[in-house]
Each structure stands twice: as structure tokens, then as C-alpha cells.
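Chain A, query sequence.
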Amino acid sequence: MLKQTWSVNHWNINYLNVYSYDASNNLDTQLYQLWNGSSWNTDLQSLYTYDVNNNKISFVGQSWSGSSWTNVFQSLYTYDVNNNQTSEISQTWNVSSWENDQKRLYTYDTNNNQITDLYQFWNGSSWVNNGLNSFTYNINNNRISELSQTWNGSSWVSTEQGALTYDINNNLINDQYAIWNGSTWVVRFLTDYTYDVNNNRLTELAQQLNGTGWDTTRHFSFTYDAGNNKVSEVKYGWGPDAWDNYSDSLHYYYSNFSGIINLAFGQEINIYPNPSSGTFTLQSTNHQINNSIITISNMLGDKCLSLSPNPLNGTSASFDVSELSNGIYFVQLKTNDKTITKKLLLSK
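Chain A, predicted structure.
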């Protein structure tokens, strides 16, 4: 991937990322090079390894000294029998060996929903608690509560909590977040969402408590074509007495390409709407989605989420990924005999 920037009347070369992949199409190396004006200077590289289920188990960052590669940092990952990530340990290189830095531990319920996320740091001799996030779900596996706590040296102290509600189609329609003031919960932020008959998100309205009342802070609106593809989004912020368009309006255009289509990959699963504003439906023509393992990874191959289907029927399920940042992701569906990957654009 070549990065260039436009300067008046010509392109300036910035950097080059070179990727290589293993036999299972997992990213195994990423080389980062800088342009010095006449040639490429090697700067950094990332190395990845995977287990037999294609879960990433290590990520090593190295810098080029001019003659050899030097370790800088690494992350190590573990998984349970359902391929849910259970731990991540971050380490830094201290000339001759790796030193622990931070650790995260994850637990899941029987439906593979994440229920805890524990943060710890290394004090030089042992791991020390730092933060804890806990989650609960309804019978449709929608996350309905989030609780954040910090460690005070002897016990957990609550700091923030969130409550989420859904409609009968499992669309998120409201979320609100509260702060613990020492004696009670005070709701500080809330967001309302609306949808069309095809479960496409139409609006997103956010408010913030100002001490005596609620201030509207942002308003997003979206439109879609007949195929449930997003065609526009407009983002507003509330000014002194009116809505201000604080972000350029976005418009999406689609084309039908002719040529050779890989039926095995192109038509076995479908994602809509895509781009997605935070929720999407995965539809399969040949596979039972509720018996599949579904994960979402970012452009670097890092696994961001392990998803539990909310079945609409045997071959269709809806998902909520609104906790992810905007960007391009890859949705991977694993069955007993194959793995299928589709690209998802998240734009909230």
C-alpha cells in the first residue's frame, strides 16, 4: 500500500506498506518503508503467527537498525475451544529479553457473549488489577448492560455504567451511560436510534446532561436505496440555536460489475446494509449461520469481535457492531468445511 499526498501540482510519496500472507490468507508480515526523496528506507516490520484455527497468537513489532531487526514490542494471545480470545499480554523488549507490560483477560457465557474484560498491569513482580468491564445480555444475545470499575488496591469501585434497549427486530434503539458520583448513578449521556421497515438505521440523536437539563449534541441521518445500500449520511452538531453541519455529507455510489464471479465466495453469504451504521444482517444461501463461528477483523488482521448470531432464521442473522470505530473490517464465517470472508464498511 503506497501513501501519497497531493501538493499543489504533484504527488508526494510518503510511505509504503508491503504485506505478505500465509497459505490460509492470514497476514504474516507487514513491512513499513519511508521515502527519503530518492529511495525507500526500511523502518519497521510486524510479524504475526496463528494457531491451527487461524487465530492470531502473536504479534511482534521490530525496528530496523540499519543492519538488522531489533525487537520493540509484542502481544501474545490465547483462545478457548470456541475460538473466543481469552487473553492478551503486551510486552516490551529490554535489550535481551521480553518484559511484561499489560494484560487483558476475557470471559464468555455459554452463548459466546463476552461477559468480562479485565485490565491488569505488571508491577515488576506480579500482575495488578487496574480496570474491569462487565456485560450482560438478553435472551436474544443483545448486550443490555455495561459496567466499568477500577481497582482501589483492595476492591472494585464502580465508575460508569451503560444500559441498552432494543426493538423486536433486535435493533438498538436507545443507549444511556451514567457516572457514579459516590452515592448514586447519574445519567450523563443518552442516544436514540430509529430505523426503517428494512431495519436500516435512519437517525441517531445524542444528548448530554448539562446539570439542569439535556443538551442535544449531535444528529445523524441516513438514506438507503432499494437494495438497502446506504446512499447518504449527514452529520449535524447542535449550535447555539440550530443544527450545524459539522461534517461533510457523505454519498455512496454503487456499480454492477460484469465479468467472472467466484460463486463459492461471492454468493454464499451476503451482508446488508453495507456500508453499515452499526448493525448489519448476514445472510447465507448454503450454511446454517447459527452453527457457524463468526468473527470480525480489522485491516491489519487483528480480531476485533467474536459474534454470536441473533438468528432471524436458519440462514440469516443480525449483528450489532456499533462499539467498533469507523473503518473497513472483514467478516469471517467459519463452518465445518470452509471459511468465507466478506468486507464490511462501518460508517456511523
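Residues 257-267 have pLDDT under 50 and may be disordered. The helical segments are 263-266.
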